[in-house]
Amino acid sequence: MSIAERVDQTPTVPPDEMAVPRTSRVRLFVEQRVAFAALVVLVALPLACVLAGVLPVQDPNLQVPTVRLGHPTTDNWLGADNLGRDNLARLLYGGRVTLLAAVQAVGVAVILGVPLGVLAGLAGRWVDAVLRTCMDALMSIPPLLLAFAIVGVLGPGLTNAMLAVGIVMTPRFQRVARSGARQVARETYIEASRAAGCSPWRLLWRHVLPNASGPLLVQISFSIGFAVTAEASLSFLGLGVQAPQASWGSMVRESFNVIRRDSWQIVPPSVAIAATLLATSLVGDGIRDAINRSGGGRSAGARL
Amino acid sequence: MRFIVQRLFSACGTLFLVSIAAFTLPELARGDAAAIIAGDDATPDVVERVRHNLGLDRPLFSRFFGFIADVGRGDLGVSIRVKPGATVTSMIADALPATASMLVVGLLFACLMALPLGVAAALRPGSVIDRMVSVFAALSQAVPPFVLALVLILWLSLGRGWFPAVGYVPLTDDVTQWASHIVLPALALAAAAGAELTRQTRGALVDVFEQDYIRTAIAKGLSKPVVIGRHALKGASSPIITVLGLQVARLIGGSIVVERIFGIAGLGSLAFDAVLKRDFVLIRGVVLVTAVLVIVVNLIVDVVDDRLNPKARA
Lengths: 304, 314
Description:
The structure holds 2 protein chains of 2 kinds.
Chain A: H1 3-7, H2 22-31, H3 33-50, H4 87-122, H5 125-139, H6 143-154, H7 158-185, H8 188-195, H9 200-236, H10 248-257, H11 267-294
Helix pairs in contact in A: 2-11, 3-4, 3-11, 4-5, 4-7, 4-9, 5-7, 6-7, 7-9, 9-10, 9-11, 10-11
Chain B: H1 2-24, H2 33-38, H3 44-54, H4 60-72, H5 88-123, H6 128-142, H7 145-159, H8 175-209, H9 212-219, H10 224-262, H11 267-276, H12 280-308
Helix pairs in contact in B: 1-12, 5-6, 5-8, 5-10, 5-11, 6-8, 7-8, 7-10, 8-10, 9-10, 10-11, 10-12, 11-12
């Protein structure tokens, strides 16, 4: 068994899954209250960050010396950092950086991974074997270390860092897209469409990708969690976001620098990161369960 | 036997690709690698000398095969920036014990967490205990290692004074000191892995408990501990040890941040220094060594899995 095969814990969607109407899967997802609540968090948090400019929060770079290392008050809901900047404002503006970076990284992984996966699934044994060995090699380098190494070569900075994280996550999407493509390739209706003169692009768009969409969504959700961790780790070490720009990772870094003087500072960014990770993993689990149930496969059981 | 040979063969293929990747890594650098290595204030003359010393003036293929031959002899080159003149092999050898201690102790913690919790949860799926274990696992997975590291330092080190906040003492110097220095980093590193392992253990055991041979074992009158220990865990071992093997790569990645926080001079710190100072030779060496480590661990996992579950052989 290759490394890639073992990592892939996404369920393969049974072919008769196609018969299940999309709405019922959405309903199955919504019925899982915990997963749905997590989805609400996952939508609300980025929304708050995007709207930070119009929300009644302070200027994230305004330094008020009197509230240095302040704890929560009515003025500073989450306290203020060692330069007297409002933590809530910094959290929201920092969240823009962190979440946008995560989306970029996942985007890179999808753009690289999905075509390679479809290629592996449809192009025959040799291409598949070569791609699998490549993905195995990529996965045998510890993901965060590989991201660091790529940043080391390309130079520090958030864009380079997220490009690196995207490359690191590529095998996940390659796997999912490959199994989706393989499943469809065996179907007789594909042969029929081909015989009817359907172009490969249309086949891909109409049949292959919809078939893999559920597992892809699961993977996207988990990957956003990984990308947030990776951004935070890189920025924590000073290899990601560069000052004066803030991200959740660099906020944890700043709290670490004053850890002996004040322990409150570590709370806001840590809770934001943990909440995002928890939400992504719950949403991922929820989608997976919804697919499993609608597909008529064995129930994965309520996780929570 | 045939299976092992097959796996060995594919591991060699992976290894070859990894070495190509490691070799190419410095080539990806924007601009002239020799100029970057020589430093900003280097004269053109110095840059040329660096280029020659690194063999960068030779053709690509000849350099690649030279690199492979060197690696085969255990020669990973000489550090350029972090510790100029020291061999990468010796630097990695110096750093390895600290990281290995963290990994081994961390994986031990992960198992100590996962097995009891996983078994307890799997015995009654859907029960209060099962739900509590799930919530605990989900929360542990949501906390990145570096956040957990800070919380542990605040709570158990600065707060209670139970463990030192920084540093590492080699095992060979003082066993108790080693243990007290390694507990917090190992815990911070392995909590998420333990949570993942808990979920896998639970899932695998729930599946196994539904099998007929477990029902037979219980019907024979065997006690619960015997059924779980001898039969169920063996049946569930395949996914459990597979996930355990996968955690090694994850922990090595996480060790970079954790080692920086706890001030441990291990492989992670070495990688960090190399990245910060753009010491390409050192980065390449660390990537290669860790990749070999991961490949070997996965190979061992496969062989053990094959021994435990010959039926699953593909």
